[in-house]
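JOB MANIFEST
job_type = single_chain_structure
chain_count = 1
residues = 233
[input]
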Amino acid sequence: MILTSVLTFARTQAQTDSNGLTDANGVIYANEALSDFHRRLIQKNVDASQIQEASITGTVNVGTYAYPTNPCSIIALKAIELNYADTVAQNYKVGEQVDVSNLPLGGFGYLRTNADPSFPQFDDRGDTFEIFPTPTSAHNLTNLIRLIGYAKPSVYGTISDTVMYPENLDPGILGYRIAANYKYSLQGTDNYVAGDKLNAKYEERVTQYINTLSRGSQQPIQATAIQLDGFEF
């Protein structure tokens, strides 16, 4: 699916054409819808928003690092794994996020020196993060940090751009939001009402796909016959 198909759907819902909902505005509205949809997925911890993994080599006496932007930006953190001992995959430990309301005496300074590398911690600061303990020359530095996070979706530049998973499952995922934003841009009571109706359809579609994409498995309960062997009495 390419973005043109989504815009065709949006124009039909908004009862307009390319003279009303232009290609240029369609790309702008599509990027807003894309960002909003992925933000909803992340809020619900839906991995279908696309998971990105990246490894970072540590630096001696440096504990604060920037989130990577290549090959893909991470817009929300899912987990940080740390391995101060070696580069063996199974030896990575999932870092525990620091509770800033319950820091030990000495605060961050204490953690930088005294945190246990067998039970590492981290502090998320938006575009950067700090790990504890601060790595020293006695620690493994190669691929010390392994980040697992939600990838920032690639924005649309033209109407011929490919619509990626999961929004490619249905043109209505982005299409209803695009149509709503177009109606809002026209102003006037009637257009606001029409925009609200279209946005309600978008909200319904988002809820449906969050429920679908967050699918999981659960072992069914199996009935077992009551068995008595005489020792119960």
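[summary]
The helical segments are 3-14, 23-43, 107-114, 172-186, 189-213.
The radius of gyration is 25 Å.
exit_status = 0
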